[in-house]
Design goal:
Elements (H helix, E strand, L loop, with lengths): L4 H8 L24 E2 L9 E7 L4 E6 L3 E2 L3 E6 L5 H14 L4 E5 L4 H14 L4 H7 E5 L4 H5 L1 H15 L3 E5 L12 H14 L3 E7 L16 H5 L2 E9 L3 H7 L6 E10 L3 E2 L3 E6 L5 E6 H9 L1
Parallel strand pairs: 5-9, 5-10, 6-7, 6-8, 8-9
Antiparallel strand pairs: 1-4, 2-3, 2-12, 10-11, 11-13, 13-14
Helix pairs in contact: 2-3, 2-4, 6-7
Amino acid sequence: MEEGYAARAARSEPEIDYSRYIVELPRLKGKAPEIVGVPTGTKLDDLFFTVYYDEVSGRLVRKPLGGIPKGAVMNLVGIPDTGKSVFAEQFAVFQAGRGSRVLFVTTENPAEFLYTSLKQKAVALDLNFGNVERNISVIDVSQEPMLRENTSALVKTMEYAVKSRRVDVVVIDSITGLYEHREVMARQIVRIVYNSLKRFHLTSIIVSQKRSSQGSETAEAAGGLAVAHIVDGTIVMDKKLMETKFDAGLYGLPLGSVLRTIRIDGCRMSGHDTNTYVMEINEVGLVEIKERLSDFIRKRSG
């Protein structure tokens, strides 16, 4: 009787030691990262928190992290002109000014223009640009098609920079630029980049864009929900144009003006405030996070 395909395949399959994939939880204790904050210099730093048990009061107490969780890969998503790049550049400059080593991967804004923008942010933040300049390295994917089209080559370049320059923080603006004409590849590309960032415990902000068909207030980006499902957390930026008298009355703003908002849509590394906050880009080009949107509306419409 002729041997079946399944039997032949089973007989030829190499023996695998499945126990190698199982790790007992206590063995992870020494590898587990401490949950601390990496400051952005904005009110966002107050919106991430941990909870500890206070023996005096006998209650669980919320303690602000003072920044986004160290080692987190945060997705910053929004429609155009909501302040994503402004925030990403501000975070990079703020961290560099504090002495952190920053790797900035630009897929849209050519490096020479990014330099000017980062310098303006340093002036606005009253930071010594010489210090900022020394602490930021740039990979200009916008002018290197080989890196833009070859994710493996890009990740190897990033890892070389991380190791050779002892990088602490990574900003990618934008991750969407790596799959803008091949969105079917989005999940695979984001996963490869994410795994690399996590391997080195890098605190990261990756900017992603929205398509017009998606609700502007949602976390879904171009490439579907691939980004939001893979990364550690998502921050949604949005804007509202005052188009009607109802809008103007509700928000207390003139017709034709714009209200920007920001919201932490999720973070699996720490607790976080889930409210929507009013956000402004001030006259010197810095992001300022103000009060909760509900408080803003109550004051303006009351």
